[in-house]
Amino acid sequence: MSLGALAALIAALALVVLVIALIPAIAAVKRTATSVSVLADLLTNELKPTIRELNDVLAELKTVGGGVAQHTDDVKKFMSALGDTGDQLTLINRSVGAVTGIVNQAGVLVTGAKVAGSYLLEHYLKRKMKGV
């Protein structure tokens, strides 16, 4: 066997060993490619509709947010009116308290006037009866 044939035989053996060693790697690459294909199909079939639904939900949220923003002024006006009503109720409560105090004092004065009047009337009548 010549040196060239021996070199060709060694090269052929090395190529066979290399191919045998690469078979598992090629199989792994094939499985990976299959997994990537399945993932791409999953993304295409399931993720796109989900993204569309999320976009629809976001659009609805923007609409609701816009409605809330429009009604914020109404709520502020309502709260301001409610505060004014509370102030007015406090003022009315103070006025009623003052009137109640005046009525109580008037009641005391009327009672005092009745007692004083009846005392004076009795005293006057007693004097008149005695002939003074």
Brief summary:
This protein has 132 residues and is mainly alpha-helical. It has one helix spanning 3-130.
List the defining traits of the structure above.
97% helix; 1 helix; 132 residues; mainly alpha
Characterization of the model:
The mean pLDDT is 85. This protein is 97% helix and 0% strand. The protein has 132 residues and is mostly helical.
Ordered list of secondary-structure elements with their pairings:
Blueprint: H1 3-130
InterPro entries: UPF0478
Organism: Trichlorobacter ammonificans
Pfam family, one: DUF948
Low-confidence stretches: none
Give the helix level as a range of percent: over 70%
Beginning-to-end CA distance, first to last residue:
179 Å
Gyration radius, to the nearest Å?
A: 53 Å
Mean pLDDT: 85
How would you describe the oligomerization state of the chains in this entry? single chain
Counting helices, strands and paired strands, the structural category is mainly alpha
Binned strand content:
under 5%
The number of strands is: 0
Q: Helix segment count?
A: 1
Largest sheet: none
Shape: rod-shaped
Order of helices and strands: H
